[in-house]
Amino acid sequence: MDKIELLKLINKGESSFVEFKADTPDIKAETIGEYVVCFANSKGGKILLGVDDDGTITGLKGRFSEYGKWISDAVQGWVHPNIIVDYEEVPVEENLRVAVITAPIGVARPYSKRKGKDAKERYYIRDVTSCRETDREELRRLFQSSGMIHFEVTPVPRSKPEDLNETMLVEYFRRVRDIGYDDTPKWLRILIDNQILSEELGAVNCTLAGLVLFGKKNRVKRLIPQSGITAVEYDAPDADVAGRFRKEINGPLISLRENAGVIAEEGIIDQAVNFVLRVRSKEKIEGTRRVTEYAYPPDVLREAVVNAVAHRDYTIGGTNIGLWLYPDRLEIDSPGNLPNTITIQQMKSGARYHRNQTIVDYLRDMNFIEGSGRGVSRKIIRGMIEHNGKEPDFELRGEALRVTLYA
Fold first, then answer.
1. How, if at all, do strands 245-249 and 256-257 pair?
2. I want to staple 295 with a disulfide (CB 3.0 to 4.6 A). Which of 13, 280, 300, 373 is the partner?
3. DSSP reduced 3-state for 112
């Protein structure tokens, strides 16, 4: 970084990615470690040492013979696990320098601030222009995004084995695993071993994955209210008020089928797909044949819905997946940022990210997800380009990933 780049950065002020710190006697190694932790747990950022909060450049005060070594020792001593930061000193005027400490997005998140192996760990994230300690829910999401815990296989409080739809389970294990229903104790052990049930401290509960996949409709809605989809149809492309039709879609992800394969009760995936197809398709006669014209190809639509339910962050309560149907486009909002260091471009190029590996595995068993894991590039993007020449948009909007398909 040169002087001009530094001045431009300072003129923009503090942000989610930039922190100003004056080089005063009360700046401790612990403080540097805390800011490195908060940036590494968020989206990365820079600490400008030698800049006051108001943007005044006061420079390094010469408290250390080697600031770079002091910074390195501070990071190594206070940040766990270890992370490598970038350090450089930018001259502004004669005898006036600013230290630029760049903390990357951590690949081993979550990072904590601690001194010594036995010290208490404290976790921080960047919140607009300040660093703050995480609350319990934020910390749980950090651990989940790192792959260190899998929230979908944790027990759901107040749930019990009777909350599962036995017909759906028997059909799945018979068809996919070639396991038939036998006596109840053996059946319970099979469900526990396959992470549909959880056995902790002598209690048997449904896991989140078990409920959202195979739960009874009313129990899923009550025990995991954030697992549904809110679908709204709008009259105008720029509508920002209540739509003309709204549907709350709840229940298990997959449909209940009778012996002949006929759907007896639609699951969330089929309900969401059919909501769009019923509204945005029409029939016409070609010769002697009746042909259906789709605004969105059913295969593309199904893939987008499956991705939304399979990869959403179920630790985020109080918000459903959003399905917003406008005359010219369909927007699907799936709660949760992309895990770890995955970017939208990597996702579009076929990189895999599985926040809910167990749910993904079951959906793959039932042919909702292809084995290659490249549904975004092969089905959604390619399918829409072949359909109407318009590539879909992917963007992060707050705490949600939005996919936009154009009619």
1. unpaired
2. 280
3. strand
Q: Which residue has the tokens 């001009």?
A: 4
Q: pLDDT tens digit string along 157-215?
A: 899 999 999 989 988 888 888 887 776 778 888 999 999 999 986 789 999 999 999 99
Q: What is the pLDDT of residue 146?
A: 67
Does residue 38 surpass a pLDDT of 60? yes
3-state secondary structure of 92: strand
| 322 touches 230 (CB < 8 A) | yes
At 260, the pLDDT band (50, 70, 90 cuts) reads: low
Rg of the Cα trace of the chain?
Answer: 26
Cα distance between residue 327 and residue 329, in whole Å: 6
The pLDDT tens digits for 46-61 are 999 999 999 999 999 9
Residue 70: CB partners within 8 Å, gap ≥ 6? 29, 64
Count of H helices and E strands in the chain? 14, 20
Token couple for 101: 């400490």
Which contacts qualify for 65-72: CB closer than 8 Å, 24 or more apart? 67/99, 70/29, 71/32, 71/99, 71/101
347-368 burial: b if 16+ Cβ within 10 Å, else e: beeebebbbbebbbebbeeeeb
Chain centre distance of CA 196 = 22
Q: What's the length of the chain? A: 407
Distances (CA, A) of 280 to 68, 234, 296, 327: 61, 12, 8, 8
Neighbours of 152 (CB within 10 A): 24
Q: Which residues contact 149 (CB under 8 A, 6 or more apart)?
A: 140, 143
47 and 86 in contact (C-beta within 8 Å)?
no
List the single range of 33-37, 290-294, 339-343 with lowest mean pLDDT.
Answer: 339-343
Express each pLDDT in 79-120 by its tens digit: 998 999 999 999 999 999 999 999 998 877 888 998 766 678
What is the enclosing helix (H) or strand (E) of 136?
A: helix 136-146
